[in-house]
Amino acid sequence: MPRRALAGLAAASVVLATALLAPPAAAAPPPDELSGLLVEDRAVRVEKEGVGDALADATGQVTAFVELDTPAGVEVAEDGGAPADVLAAAEVTEAKAAEVVPADAGEARAAGAEPTRIATLTNLVSGALVVGDAAQLRTLADRPDVVSVRLVAERTLDNAAQVEFTRALATWQDTGVLGTDVTVGIVDTGIDYTHADFGGPGTVEAYEAAYGENGSGPIPAGSFDPEKFLGGIDFAGRDYHAGGTPAQRVPAPDDNPIDVNGHGSHVAGTAAGFGVTPDGATFRGDYSALETVADWPVGPGTAPAAQLYALKVFGDIAGSTNLTSLAFDHAADPNGDGDFNDRLDVLNLSLGAAGAPADDPESLQVGELTALGTVVVLSAGNEGDVEDIGGSPGNGYAGLTVAWSIGKDLAFDAMEVTEASDPALVGRHAGQNSVAYSGADVTAPVAYVGPTFDGCTPFTPEQAATVAGKIAYLWWDDDDATRACGSVVRFNNATAAGAVGVLLPTEERIFPAGISGNATIPGFQMTAATTDALLPEIEAGTLVARIGPSMALSTRQDVGADTLSTSSSRGAHGTVGWAKPDVAAPGQQIVSADVGSGNAGATSNGTSMAAPHVAGIAALVKEARPGWSAAQIKAGIMNTATHDVSTEPGGDLFYGPARVGSGRVDALSAVTNDTLLYNAERPQQASVGFGVVQVGAEPVTIRKAVTVQNLGSTARTYTTSVTESTTSGEASITASPASLRVRAGGTGIVTLTFTADPATLARDIDPTQQVEQLEGLAREYVSQVSGRLVLTSGGQEWRLPVQAAPRPTTDLEALPVAFADAGAETAELAITGRDVVADGWYGLVTPLVHAADSPRLDALPPNAQTSPSTLAAGDIRHVGWASTAPAVEAAGGDPTADGYLGVGIATDGDWAVVGHALQPRVLVDTDGDGEPDVVSIVTKLVDTDYTVVETYDLETEDLIAGPELAFPFAGEIEAGSFDNNVLTVPVPLAALGVEPGTQVGVWAAMYSEYAFPADGVIDQVGPFTVDPYDPPLWFESNIGADFVSASFAGATVDVHKGPGAADARILALHHLNGTGDRAQVIDVTVPDAITTTTTLDVESAWTAGEETLFQMTVSPGEATGTFRVYDGETLLGETEVVDGAGVWGTASLGAGPHAFRAEYVPDTALYAGSTSEVVEREFAASASTTTLRLSASSARYGSPVTATVTVTGQSWAPSGPVEIREGSRVVATGELTVDGLVGTATVELPRDLGAGTHRLVAVFGGTADLARSQSARADLRITRAASRVTLSADTWTVPRGSTPTVTVTVGGTVEGAPAGTGSVRVLLGLRPLDVVQLADGTAQVTLPAVRSTNVVTVLYGGDDGYLPGAAAQVVRVG
């Protein structure tokens, strides 16, 4: 089916062919049912900006981690080593790093050396961060002292007080716990330690002095509070940016972690800021005595007494970073003495790499830190409701990962209504100021232009008159995809029209982004509640308002407490054994320290803001429970996060663990908690994940244990249950026992049992998910069973997230394909085995021409720093291909425009999700030079779960096709997006630009930044050569799809034979089979053709041109087809085989040797061709006769005479010249004109034949195929003719005494007669003058001086042809 590219259209609309049909409960679906689920057009319609640049390969300069074979500090300590031993091991690692990569960052900046060693890690893992060319870095893996070399995934930032909402304030009041003596590390953009929130001087001047010239100088004395800010390190330097220029990728570390971007300061303030009171001073009072902090410009952090340590890993422009592993290493031993007891208690990372695998190596470093005792708190990411988009390190098992919920009474900028027809509206209302304006406030009436006038076009004169001197209300489209313009354009147009401000509405509950505006006039965007309240007054023209910067953060509004930001990332779904996130915390409109302002606050949104709130709670728990391990602190916070997060304010549909973990955190419950629930097998993980569970023919039951610790002083009895957030049919997770009694200080076990029956499974979607992410196109999703283990006792509740992703499997295989006989054009690919019976799941098979097998990649070295799951999922084992071109042509279409080359890939391991960290690619060499010219990349459509293919021109990097769906059902059916290892990449033939008959080279590759070694390519197979228009086999889908067919016991797929079919094999991809059983190589049998024997009998006179008959027979006589007759290698003719025989004749064979053979050409592959024995004979030339006929037998000299020569061939037509001869002399020649076997030449005889009788014959010299012949004699008698003599001069009247010249001409009397020969005698008067020889019939005579009139006389004596003649002329003297 054609998939026309529609990228670039503003609207995104793809219509399904039919509605989703409910499948039967226990029987395989008929093919037409699956046909109804096919997407009508695979092209995905998006704005060009939404496509993104999928051509970013891991080539050129990259950052890599080079793992060394030296022991890490934690390994030395675990083996009983003392701090001195740890330091000694670190020195060994430093020396080894210098040996492997001699150039350090300082040398590189001075001399431009590459590769460059950024830093060395010694504590959690041994190795060096290195910047350099990818090709050079790959060679480091060959060293015996290098364990691994891997790319480092770039991390980006995940962006008054909520302490009352989460009961942190109540914790201070009730327990006095403030985080005292707890150290909190902030891995971020640094900290503005001069800010009043951190006890600094609280002035702009102090900040500027601390930053100095470039932020790299020493920290000035007196610029910070040593009780709050413990110091830190800047790993990055001012200009560092991991995704920037080569120079920017090399960090310049220093000891001053001063913040410039502001993200880190905001995060630090949320976690552990003192708070800034309304008078702008640092709060240093009694936190337990506070009743509210709602009116503070900057409220206290969750743990206001905790101490802060800055680990700056971003440059001053923020950008991205590859330096987080350095921060981990440093956090383990900040003072570098080899003793890990000074490790940081809590570490906050409000950053991440979206879509990274859950077993990213930095997640393992988080595990190491957790084991040491550091609670690592991580943001879940801001990529929204996309499967597995929550990235590393937040998706690792050990960290405490935080989602972004909405708090209560959020701080907003304000607009003030000064006049309104309804007095109740006078006062401040919530919204957000435009950020570009910093001038004075403006008070003016609000002008209403119209309900949908957005200001994206210049105002008309009438509209300008309406808004002149007023605040212009301009409509704002909340849909990013359809919004006509941004704020800058409309503000500029409003300014040009004379408006003094701009007022914008929204219907969104929370602001997804800020408003820029311009620097000339202020602007304000109202919240949805403000819009609803004020719009009637605006429409009526009765509203007067004040807007401007002075009212920043001056009001609060509750927009829906305990709801979720749509931007909060959905977590990992458990492919590698755990799911994320863990908890949710407020991250919307969070007010915290504003960098460089001295004592002001700023608002920010994101999981970046939610994570430090939880980091502060961790610090509180750490103080309250100093003996708890990091895993226990994590579990305690999760267990007490019992506040549900709903999809809408006051709603009763709540988010499950995939979005919010246990629920929204509660600081007081966490601090006072004395019961812990956690995964007994993996305590650091806490939650219980059954992962992806394959369900075959029989019900599946899996049990996992949860440890219950009663740390209270009395025994407790707990009631156990499991709530249900998402379902997969009737699959369930249950808890036992129903009641558990645990003694004081003791532990108990709750057993979680996952049960799935294939007969009752269903592919349910999370009820909180959008069914369509693009209009009319079902989203791709993972069906999960999830909820929480809930324990209750005495009115208290504890939670633990539980999850499983059941996946029903088929057990299908394809039988060998056998064509019935050599002549059969089609055969059946038959499917046998066990069907799937689960509701919403379908067996699918994609048959392909087998192209290549690939061995399993070598095992990774021990402790190699990469993602093992990604490498296994990128390890190619089989590759095949297919083409839709024959099917398109058979249907009357144009395969060059609508055909597809499909390249199928089967890998060794399953991917969790394809298109994020792992990208299949197909590269095609279209011009035959051995280098790829086009690449098709499997990726994700930005901000969605749709798996798409984008095709690029490798030379120009232009997108030439797509994005279009990789799977033809979109999300109607799970065909390979998740937890699979097979897929087919569709490559448009139109994008290749090759014509039929062209062979192309193809590579299949798996790309990932986790490739080992670090070159971006996990595995690659090819090139193999294919003809996309004429494959050896092509497959006719039984559901009308391009490549895939319905698969169930008894299903068949028609296989069509092409050239080379007998040598082909089939690679069948069974999409729903179990792991390790999805790729099957199948033999194809094409029976040998029936042997034939051909005979030839030739009947002929063996003379050129004579009729020759060729009589042929073929055995067996049932063979059909054509006989072809050859003379040597020249095809003479052909005839149809009739009843095993055929006759063909010709009369066009020439003389000479001939070698005849007959070839039998079958018209069906059932029979083999055959050739007769050769018949060799010599053909004689044909005889000829020649006749001569003259137009006259006698003629006077000079008269025309023609001769007609006729040559007649006996069996071959004459050709060429004939000659008229007199004796041996050739008198004349002529060219034959042939008609049939007769050739005629009419020849005019020469006019100068002399007088007498001429005996003439005609001679035909013959050809290779016709013999020579000569005519009988014909006589021609020539008689002398009268001559004509003429005289001429310039004038015949001459002056006296002149000597005129006279010309004499002698010829015949007939036109065209020859010139006379011989001589003439000239007389003047009676006096002879001279005898002159004729030349070409003329002679000239110069007369002597003429004295008087006289007569010139010329006498001609004649020659062989002319009789004598004379002429006279009077010469007058005048």
Automatic annotation (TrEMBL):
UniProt keyword terms in alphabetical order: Hydrolase, Protease, Serine protease, Signal
Bacterial Ig-like domain ranges (all copies): 1191-1276
Matches recorded under Pfam families: Big_3_5, Peptidase_S8
Residue intervals of the Peptidase S8/S53 domain: 179-648
GO molecular function: serine-type endopeptidase activity
GO biological process: carbohydrate metabolic process; proteolysis
Keyword Metal-binding: no
PROSITE patterns: SUBTILASE, SUBTILASE_ASP, SUBTILASE_HIS, SUBTILASE_SER
Signal peptide start-end: 1-27
This protein's record includes keyword Hydrolase: yes
Enzyme active site: D188, H263, S608
Cited InterPro entries: Big_3_5, Ig-like_fold, Peptidase_S8/S53_dom, Peptidase_S8/S53_dom_sf, Peptidase_S8_Asp-AS, Peptidase_S8_His-AS, Peptidase_S8_Ser-AS, Peptidase_S8_subtilisin-like
Family of the protein in this entry: Belongs to the peptidase S8 family.
Official protein name in the record: Peptidase S8
Lineage: Bacteria, Bacillati, Actinomycetota, Actinomycetes, Micrococcales
